[in-house]
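Title: Comparing notes on inverse folding

I've been comparing how different people in this forum approach sequence design from structure. To keep things fair, I'm posting one structure and asking everyone to reply with a full sequence. Here's the target:
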């Protein structure tokens, strides 16, 4: 369903001025018969009314309360497209971030793709993810119910983990095949190497033509990459990226701290964070559920309060960066 139009007038700006406004949320479902890759888009925006719903909640993670199909302002809003998490992240795992961006005056879209059940299918995710973002942007710009509320001069992509890799590709970063196939060789180990190796899958099985295809989307005006995976896979040290870019590094050992980057890139460092801080706040039962299922309770962090503080700090840096770029 699509949101109704709210006749109330307010000023749309890329600042935290909407912190006290209600949140609206709507869903868009995209089909792709050629690739058999349906996408579920969760659209967050400053809104009023709607049926209250806890979005992104499950047994392990809390969600975010928002008004389903709430009324949407008539103002044009800057857009943020979010590609969140690694290969097996749950749907709406970035709800904490998209909701916060909506409170800050953005129309924020989280892009959820089917999780690859088998490692052989997951190898293609490195080039599927940027395609997913461009497809999502195509969909909202071609839909008049959404496009009339979009400031098309201010469209950004925020990515976390593999989603951050996609963001860099959309900004003009180009993949180097020989570097990509290295992480699962020897003892180096990429983020999902154990999973690939358990199923006897090598990264060399990637479609080489697809990996080499440029993914730059000229409609995107800035990008934020939060702890990107495969950062060393980009050829030319990311010098082909020609739009405002910010790296957000979670943790002291994050590669964004040490990998060479163009001087024009902004950076936000959070040495006391971990990669787990990119996920939702856990439920009280979350750590035990993870432990019982063979997962890592450390995904829940030290406390819900500590994660909430980290989320606020991350959002503040992103909103400041996006706001500065929108004024230039």
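Reply #1:
Here's my take.
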């Amino acid at each position: 369903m699509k949101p109704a139009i709210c006749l109330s007038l307010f000023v749309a700006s890329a600042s935290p001025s909407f912190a006290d406004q209600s949140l609206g949320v709507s869903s868009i479902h995209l089909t792709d018969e050629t690739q058999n890759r349906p996408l579920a888009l969760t659209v967050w925006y400053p809104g009023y009314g709607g049926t209250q719903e806890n979005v992104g909640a499950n047994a392990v993670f809390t969600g975010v309360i928002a008004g389903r199909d709430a009324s949407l302002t008539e103002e044009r809003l800057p857009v943020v497209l979010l590609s969140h998490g690694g290969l097996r992240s749950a749907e709406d795992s970035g709800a904490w971030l998209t909701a916060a961006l909506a409170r800050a005056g953005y129309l924020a879209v989280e892009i959820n793709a089917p999780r690859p059940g088998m490692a052989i299918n997951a190898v293609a995710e490195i080039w599927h993810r940027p395609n997913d973002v461009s497809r999502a942007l195509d969909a909202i710009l071609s839909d008049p119910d959404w496009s009339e509320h979009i400031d098309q001069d201010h469209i950004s992509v925020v990515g976390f983990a593999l989603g951050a890799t996609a963001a860099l590709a959309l900004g003009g970063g180009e993949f180097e095949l020989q570097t990509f196939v290295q992480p699962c060789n020897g003892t180096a180990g990429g983020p999902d190497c154990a999973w690939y190796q358990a199923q006897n899958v090598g990264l060399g099985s990637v479609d080489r033509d697809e990996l080499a295809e440029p993914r730059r989307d000229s409609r995107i005006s800035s990008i934020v990459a939060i702890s990107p995976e495969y950062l060393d896979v980009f050829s030319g040290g990311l010098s082909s990226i020609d739009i405002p870019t910010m790296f957000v590094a979670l943790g002291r050992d994050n590669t964004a701290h040490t990998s060479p980057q163009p001087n024009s890139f902004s950076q936000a460092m959070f040495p006391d964070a971990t990669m787990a801080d990119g996920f939702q706040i856990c439920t009280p039962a979350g750590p035990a559920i993870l432990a019982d299922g063979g997962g890592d309770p450390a995904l829940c962090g030290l406390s819900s309060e500590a994660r909430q503080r980290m989320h606020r700090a991350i959002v503040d840096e992103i909103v400041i960066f996006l706001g500065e770029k929108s004024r230039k």
